[in-house]
Write a structure and sequence with these properties.
- With 123 residues, the protein is mainly α.
- 50% of the residues lie in helices and 0% in strands.
- The chain is built from five helices and no strands.
- α1 crosses α5 and α3 crosses α5.
- It is globular, with a radius of gyration of 17 Å.
């Protein structure tokens, strides 16, 4: 009976990890919409700043990137909830942002991109 309980406990831990890996894989596909302007590589800015290390980072804090005044004055920290709101509608969360992307209306797409950012070493 103990063996079964151990197997069940391991399986219970593995399921969320497998789900997150699936989300990250989907997120990589959705991120294709973002990669024209953003990179997940450290120190690689494009039209937008690198998203490497974005989770937990203060907005407008990547050295060498020229942010809009709106983003500089937003005083945001990019946690999962804030990223979700921003990815849903960037101009609603930060009016005056330079980001022209209209957003990701589907919550599952936003959550997948966030999972990808976390898995890709961006956190």
């Amino acid at each position: 009976m103990r063996g079964f309980a151990l197997v069940a406990a391991i399986a219970a831990l593995a399921l969320p990890m497998a789900a997150q890996a699936q989300d990250a894989a989907k997120g990589k596909q959705v991120f294709a919409k973002c990669q024209a302007c953003h990179s997940v590589d450290a120190g690689t800015n494009k039209l937008g700043p690198t998203l490497h290390g974005v989770i937990g980072r203060a907005a407008a804090s990547v050295d060498g990137f020229k942010y809009s005044d709106a983003m500089k004055n937003a005083h945001l920290t990019w946690d999962e909830a804030t990223l979700d709101k921003y990815l849903a509608n960037p101009k609603q969360l930060v009016p005056g942002t330079k980001m022209v992307f209209p957003g990701l209306p589907k919550e599952e797409d936003r959550q997948a991109v966030i999972a990808y950012l976390k898995e890709s070493g961006a956190s």
